[in-house]
Amino acid sequence: MFSITVWIFIVVAVLAYFVLKPKKRTINLPGPWGLPIVGNAFQIGKRMHITMAKWGMKYGPMCKVKLGPMEVVVISDQHVAKEMLAMDAFVGRTTPPEFVLYEGETVGIIGSEGELWEQQRRFVVRQLRDFGFGKSSMESIIMEEVNELGERLAAFKGEPITNMKSFLSLATVNSLWSIVAGTRYSQDDPKLRALAHRLSGAFNDAGENAGALFLMKWLKHIAPEFCGYNGIRRMFADLAEFVSKTIQEHKNTFQEDSPRDFIDVYLKEIKSTTDPSSSFHGAEAAGADTMASTLNWAILHIINNPEILRKLQAEIKEVTGNSRPVSFSDRPKMPYTLAMINEMLRLTLSPFGVPHCVLNDTEYKGVFLPKGTIIMINLHFLHHDPRVWGDPENFRPERFLTPNEKSLVKNEYLNPFMVGRRQCPGESLARDTIFLFLVNLVQKFDILKEPSSEVDLEPEIGFLLQPKPYKAVFLERKL
């Protein structure tokens, strides 16, 4: 009798809630039908990017997805995305849990908004420019890591390598940390391994369900371990401690008139911030993992299709004669390599990027969007829309080349680093790093599939789409 009474009370309470709660103006957009209370949460599944791609095809450029009590606007059209993200009303952030170390504290250029974001973005863009995209100083830092990575791979003497992600993460993290903190480690140094694990884990090791936290914050209260929230907090707290310690070491030896690196310049110019380490948490993690993931996918596609390796090596030989390493200055003469990088970025980066948030009640194309509405760019769909790409599932660098394959074609539909005012400021650095690692490894090695293994191109799901572990063989070439 008691249990029946309790159930009746619960049913009445739920009905009363929906009947008596204030009616808010809903977003008048098409979208999938959902269940009461949970909305479409259980329809998404573990492969959220595939589900969203299907909804993008079915419901058009703008659709509404309900996740629990929240209405999320999903953008599945490149022109709409560019127009919206250029507007001030849509530069807000949803304060995703990945960037919350402690309740109420948002960190970094990725998670912040308003004046703090404007300040940090201006600083990052200016300093990356001053440190020099494509300059010899930047190139020498990256090439030092390329050369050590080459030595480590050569030491296997043709034996299969099963942990390419680890090798690439250590090398790319080291180059990025050299720029940020002026510190370089040997790639087998335990300190570097710990840093690389923190940075990679901050986005992807917390679990395949972590992506849902971007849109369904209430999951952290219901199942914090299962949804990845606890793992993310632990990883970011660990990363924050490491970065804070590094900044304190800089403070102890800081000389305002002679900054040594990115952190020194930050300490000199932004003295009023309560937590200077916050600018490096999310950006460092996102940048390092993006570069390593893209290179990891590149190697996987090379061993899956030896013709790609042949074309890359032929282009390198034509430009350098194989008498010297490839440099930044060679890029304009290497259209196939650049097309290969574009195709990698089209296929493999974050399926959605970081969600945006409407800052004020806004009307866009006749649709009312209340303050706080989450805007999600269906990035995976935009880069896999068959109406744009024709054969989006095929790895085909030639789609970015002229018919004679002699020149690179700019494609307005390729935007892996997002668009608008919150476009990633580290795009040039990421592309520079990926280019130098890829071409110099391909120049030095024949990269082959281990004969008894199979190639699986299905990704592991996380903040980024990561390749599953595979076996690769690196054979030194006689140049």
TrEMBL record:
Heme binds at C424. Its cofactor is heme. InterPro entries: Cyt_P450 (IPR001128), Cyt_P450_E_grp-I (IPR002401), Cyt_P450_sf (IPR036396), Cytochrome_P450_fam2 (IPR050182). One of its GO terms (molecular function) is heme binding. Keywords: Heme, Iron, Metal-binding, Monooxygenase, Oxidoreductase. It holds the Pfam family p450. The keyword Oxidoreductase applies. Gene3D superfamilies: Cytochrome P450. One of its GO terms (biological process) is xenobiotic metabolic process. One of its GO terms (cellular component) is cytoplasm. Belongs to the cytochrome P450 family. This is Farnesoate epoxidase. The lineage of its organism: Eukaryota, Metazoa, Ecdysozoa, Arthropoda, Hexapoda.
